[in-house]
Design brief:
Layout lengths: L2 H46 L7 E2 L6 E5 L4 E3 L3 E2 L6 E5 L4 E5 L2 E2 L6 E4 L8 E4 L8 E7 L5 E10 L2 E4 L4 E5 L4 E8 L8 E5 L2 E2 L8 E6 L4 E6 L8 E7 L5 E8 L4 H6 L10 H14 L2
Parallel strand pairs: 2-11, 13-20
Antiparallel strand pairs: 1-4, 3-9, 5-6, 5-10, 6-7, 8-9, 10-11, 12-14, 14-18, 15-16, 15-19, 17-18, 19-20
């Protein structure tokens, strides 16, 4: 073999060695990159699935809800991050399970869980609430372990009240003013009607009666500018959502109020022990 042929063969082998070396370097670099991608992917997957957090209640624990008899009570329970958990309502005084999810587990149809799709609010609704419904209710989420808050329902009986004494005495021609207010009423009334004896008089302007109602303030006033004997009688304040109240009005035309109150001689003398002893002695003498 000539020197020229040896030189050409050497160059060819060098080219092969360079190609092999380059391939090995490239493969090694790709392996390292693949390992980095795998590691990065693993970290990414690990970051995508953090440890599960317990549900968070947005409704404050020990919240007091006030409802009046006959109304609809709404006990709220707002939960963040419920995940696959299920909300249940429990009446604590007898540990009675009321609802699980949207299913009612009590025979009392007044109870119902109210929940809009994709919302975080699970409200317990009690229709036609009664005084016996008062007490503590538990909103429980079926996490591990279960999470709960406790809410107190206070049931009150709203009533109307007319200011002043039960019986009122006015002089002929004076101003008659009756003011009615609602007590223990968390809800605004739809109406407040006044009755004179058995007649509703809210619109009796022609009879000299003017009624002004402030429903948001839960009050109503009946006004007569110049009272006459026709305005005497029983007046009742009847709200839409409360027990009524009554008062009796006497329009005096020179009469003595004390005489009108007693209607004649006081009957307390019948309770005198000495009188009964005297009557017993006289009865004994008559039969002796």
């Amino acid at each position: 073999m000539s020197n020229f042929d040896e030189t050409m063969l050497y160059r060819d082998w060098m080219k092969v060695l360079v190609v092999v070396f380059f391939w090995l370097c490239t493969a090694n670099s790709q392996g390292q990159q693949g390992a980095s991608v795998t590691e990065a992917t693993g970290n990414e997957l690990e970051a995508s699935f953090p440890p599960a957090l317990p549900p968070q209640f947005a409704t404050e624990n020990s919240t007091i809800i006030t409802a009046q008899t006959g109304s609809t009570a709404l006990i709220p329970c707002l939960v963040h991050g419920i995940g696959d958990g299920v909300v249940s309502w429990i009446r604590r005084k007898d540990y009675h399970l009321l609802t699980v999810g949207l299913t009612t587990y009590t025979g009392d149809e007044r109870y119902q869980a109210v929940h809009l799709h994709n919302s975080e609010d699970w409200t317990l609704q009690i229709k036609f609430v009664q005084e016996r419904d008062a007490g503590i209710y538990e909103c429980q989420v079926s996490s591990h372990p279960p999470s709960s808050i406790f809410l107190h329902l206070d049931v009150v009986e709203a009533r109307a009240e007319i200011a002043g004494p039960r019986e009122k005495y006015l002089k002929l021609g004076s101003v008659l003013r009756l003011t009615c207010s609602l007590r223990q009423s968390p809800d605004t009334p739809v109406y407040m009607f006044w009755y004179h004896n058995n007649r509703m008089v809210n619109y009796d302007l022609d009879r000299g009666i003017n009624v002004t109602s402030q429903l948001p303030a839960k009050s109503s006033t009946l006004l007569v500018g110049q009272a006459t004997p026709l305005h005497s009688g029983n007046y009742s304040c009847v709200p839409s959502n409360a027990q009524p109240a009554s008062t009796v009005v006497h329009i005096l035309n020179g009469e003595n109020p004390a005489a009108m109150q007693t209607g004649g001689r006081d009957l307390t003398w019948l309770r005198s022990p000495s009188l009964w002893l005297l009557l017993a002695c006289q009865t004994s003498l008559l039969h002796s």
